[in-house]
Every structure is written in structure tokens, then in C-alpha cells.
């Protein structure tokens, strides 16, 4: 099985979307992307945590070695011993954190829910925009992809993940529990179900197909389909 080493933020968002996919399926929805349905699961690890542990081990080793090879004043030696003690305690606490979990999804998700097709994406850079798009299903064509039109990608903020009235969940924390992930999944699921449908992009009476790149005049939209859908033009 392939392994993926992620930052703490990325690691937590992968867990959130993987659990969200489970909830969507359990509530009658489905994943619509063939790629997402057929790709192999991977094991994800918290790279930031691994690097932090390695750094602590290195610091402890250096302090221990220096105490035996250098001559320090009493105060200086006491400070080093105290610092090493704190590092050891921190190391012990971090080594208790379990990671290395199997996921079937990544940082984005295409899914069908309540007669809508939705796309949600956590940007790998937490300071950049995160996206959500919601498109009503065309009952005539049962179109299950956001391809006929290019819909506006609506921004959503990490501020939706409230721990309580005054505190947000910290997605940069090593200590996000399974219960915390579950609470954030519930919040995100509610956000998806309650959000309004996104607006299609219409430029000069034309619509742009984000899948194949073709620009449709409005009157052509019902007559033509995206070439990736393998439907011939009328």
C-alpha cells in the first residue's frame, strides 16, 4: 500500500473528507467520480509530527553528549538538565500519538447528495481559498458531473469548524481526536446540505464547459453534451 506523508493540517483534512465520504454514502448519497471510486486506498502519516519527534531526539542527544564532553558552570549545567527533562517529557507525550491511517479519499471530493452534485476541496495551503460547488442535477439528462456549465467555486472558511461559541478547532494540532474529526464532519455535512446552489458562469450569453473546454451558446446547451460524456451532438 502506498504511503503519503502530510503536514498536520493536511493530515487532519484528509481524515475529515474520508469520514465525510462515509457519511454521505450512509445517508443515501454516492461518490460520482470514477477516479475517486476506483483509486486504491493509501496510508497517511503526519510528517510534521515525525519531524518534531526526530528534532526532540536530536536535541536530547546533543544535550546529553555536551554534558559529558563540556565543562559548564553550575547554573548552566542545571539549565541544560532541566531543558533536557522537558524535552524528554514532550517526546514521551508525542510518541503516544497514533497516526498512519488508511484513507480512500484525498483533499477533494465529488459527490451526489439530495438531488445535487457537490464538489468540495481543502486547499493544501491553509492560507489559500477552500472551495465548494453545488449544482442541481438535470433530471432530463441525469447529469452527474459539473461539466455542462462552469459553476462558480464558492469559498468556504475553516471558521465553520467551531469547537464552542468562542473557539475553533485547531487543524494544525497533533491532538485532534476521532471525536473532534466526527464533530467537524457533522458540521461540514450540514454545511453541504444547507448551502445554496452555486451560480453558473455566463459570459456574453455563453457557457464554458470546464471538462472539455468547449464554449456553448445558450441555445446549444440542450443539444450538445461534453465529449467526455461520450454523448454525440444532436
Structural class: alpha+beta
Rounded mean pLDDT score:
81
Give me the oligomer status: single chain
Low-confidence stretches: 144-150, 208-214, 216-234
Instruction: Please bin the fraction of helical residues.
Output: 25-40%
Number of helices: 5
Number of strands: 11
Largest sheet: 5 strands, antiparallel
Rg measurement, Å: 24 Å
Shape: elongated
Tell me the strand percentage band.
15-25%
* Strand order within the widest beta sheet: 2-5-6-7-8
How far apart, in Å, are the first and last alpha carbons? 45 Å
The H/E string reads: EHEHEHHEEEEEHEEE
What's this model, at a glance?
Helices cover 37% and strands 19% of the residues. It has 234 residues and is α+β, with helices and mostly antiparallel strands.
Structural commentary:
The protein is 37% helix and 19% strand. With 234 residues, it is α+β, with helices and mostly antiparallel strands. Among the domains are: 47-95; 107-194, no CATH class. The chain starts with a strand and ends in a 17-residue tail after the last strand. Mean pLDDT is 81; it is low at 144-150, 208-214 and 216-234.
